[in-house]
Amino acid sequence: MSPARPVARVRVPLTVVLSFAVVALVLSWSLVPDLFTGQDPARGVPADKFRGPSGAHWFGTDHLGRDLFSRVVHGTASSVTSALIAVGIAVVVGGLFGLLAGFLGGWTDTVLARLVDVLLAIPEFLLAVVVVSALGFQTINAAVAVGVSAVGVFARVMRSEVLGTRRAVFVEASYLQGGSRWHILVRHVLPNASRSLASLAVLQFGYSILLIAALAFLGFGDPPPASDWGLLVSVGKDYPLAPWLVYAPALVMIATVLSVNRISRWLRKTD
Amino acid sequence: MAPQDRLTLDRAEPQAAPVREPGSLLRAADLSVSYGHHQVVSGVGFGLSHGESLALIGESGSGKSTIARAVLRLGTGRASGRVEFEGQDILSLPERRFRPLRGRRIGFVPQDPGSSLNAVRTIGSQAQEAAALTGERGTAQRKELVLQTFAQVGLDDPRRVYDSYPHQLSGGMLQRVLIGLTVLPRPALIVADEPTSALDVTIQKRILDLLSELRRDLGISLLLITHDLAIAAEHADSLVVLKDGVVQDAGPTTAVFSAPESDYTRRLHADVPALNPDRYRHLRTRRGGEPKIEVSGVTKVFTVEGKPLTAVDDVSFTVAAGTTHALVGESGSGKTTIVRLLLGLEEPGTGGITVAGEEVTGRSHASLRSIRRHLQLVYQNPFTSLDPTWKVERLVREPLDRFGVGTRQERTDRVRAALESVGLEENLLSRRPAALSGGQRQRVAIARSLVLRPDIIVLDEPTSALDVSVQAGIVEVLVSLQAELGLTYVFVSHDLALVRQLADTVSVLRRGRIVESGTVQSVFDSPQQTYTRTLVDSIPQGFA
Hints:
CATH superfamily of chain A: MetI-like
Oligomer: heterodimer
Strand order of the largest sheet of chain B: 6-7-8-3-9-10
CATH class of chain A: Mainly Alpha
Radius of gyration of chain B: 26 Å
Helix content of chain B: 25-40%
CATH topology of the largest domain in chain B: Rossmann fold
Helix content of chain A: over 70%
Strand content of chain A: under 5%
Number of domains of chain A: 1
Largest sheet of chain A: none
Shape of chain B: globular
CATH architecture of chain A: Orthogonal Bundle
Order of helices and strands of chain A: HHHHHHHHH
Structural class of chain A: mainly alpha
Largest interface: A-B, 23 and 34 residues
Structural class of chain B: alpha/beta
Mean pLDDT of chain A: 83
Number of strands of chain A: 0
Strand content of chain B: 15-25%
Mean pLDDT of chain B: 83
CATH superfamily of the largest domain in chain B: P-loop containing nucleotide triphosphate hydrolases
CATH architecture of the largest domain in chain B: 3-Layer(aba) Sandwich
Number of domains of chain B: 3
Distance between the termini of chain B: 37 Å
Largest sheet of chain B: 6 strands, mixed
Number of strands of chain B: 20
């Protein structure tokens, strides 16, 4: 029974602002990498190999004298896009599963629920490895694999949200005002149920970046000279005397994932 | 030894000698409480003597509960000023020295008994904790004490209650248990925060009577927090009327009632249904035409855990066009099931329902849809009946869109007209429910049910989730719409005072059966059944 209050302006904490800035930077790296670095990620200057971080090479250079900052920036597109694909698959397929199971109930629910149980029973990473082995070693396949492995979680969350919303009083009200099942599903249940799916999707985006990087690290992604973040770490670990080859891409990854998680938590709180 | 005597004998060593002067027990002066930068209570002062009762009255957001919490030092807000209890300023007391007072000297009866007890422990094991506050050491002696108190607060079978889990008891019994646990350590003061708002009317009356009785017999002072002026008038010696954290009126009950100082108190007084039975008489010209709704011999049996449960048992009533028929009963009396049967949301087992000459029972979905154009429902809780993701304009337009009424422009016009008729400004059109107050939301819900221009509106406790003054506004809208459009209402309620204000005929329900029906006047003036008489008696009389 809250008294009438004007819509309060949402106060955004500083960490959230910073997180948005990091995510915006990473997204623009993936869209227009050339704006951020003048150097060719593939051109190596052998004389400059294993240079530490400096004004000329922010993240230093690798064993072929290639500029690491440029490689990280140019590798962003592949890492971010594949994470987006993974989230997309999880949201669409998982969301649809959950929506149908929750709304139709009965047999549909039973069958889909068992399917989701099977998906959830297999460890995510193992499932991703199996899928990517079947499809072939490519970053895009790794993305599909990560997406498939997350379908179960999304289906379950969506189902419980739909079950809750379906019994809401306003849904019955709409039915009494002549709303058809389809109308109620699309206009009332879906928008309400997808709220919590949105914050989960943001969280999953960060997790997908990690998972895809892990797959790339193990060699399940595109082979070199691609410069996925996970691959950069994987290659860099062979040169213990040039630790920046591991630290720089890893720190970029950590910053991105932390920012995304912070945003997700904030979204869930503010609703 | 009767429990009564035992309890009175137990009034062990009073910690402060009782001094009979106003405000001798509890005195608040210049009390302010703020949450962050938001001040919710400003400069409030009041006094309470031994054995007296004081009511803090106000609507939601008036700061009355905040004051109660400040007295108990349970609030999270920052309190300044003075609150003296038995001559000691408790606001400045360190927590270590206040803790012995809370529970022992100052008891607290919460609003919702259901959520105030631990669901996974028996009543007895929780009562032991309260009994420990008396200083009694032995478990058996404590149990004895608890059982006696339970008998004292009117629980019929104290032993069964002692061994029960909270979910095995009704709301009224739980509230008695809580009151029992509160009086057990023999406090000097009980703070009761809306102790009956979650309970049925007849139980409400009994709980309030119990509190008054305990006050009289045991000399426990009572600080009663309530939104209901009529209840306060019946049970308090003096009143403090609050609005937005500021005292509007204060003084002995008789004085505040006979000569209220502030406009707010006067308005509040006018808004309480129990005190103004004839408020809407001038708007209600009796029409009484053709029967619009006919319900004959309807029975509905649900199967609950394999056992049949008769929710509605051989119910019949007729509603004449342009009149208001009230369905009255406590929770579980079958009111809601009758509403759902009327709207075709449930099929009756036997019997028939006719709405505007058309049979509701045994129809297909499509033909039910055509009936619903003439029959709309306003839900009890406007906080759940509006889709939070939709804007007001779309919410009200939804029925028009679904039934494909008129052109786009006509629909827009009708939405605006409907909002205007319930007294809402046009600038609310683009707001979402979260940005509206409870009263505004219920007005939107009423506008939504009006927009199809139905003949009949079923009102399922449309004001029970709202404040008294907001309720008065909604009722005013409903009554004038009826006068203007000749609407027929089915009004479901447990609030008899409200029914007396706006209904023409009434059916009193108990356990799925109609125990009494007739015109409001005849049923209220000369109830034939004992149950009806109990209900009518439970209407607070206010200050007689």
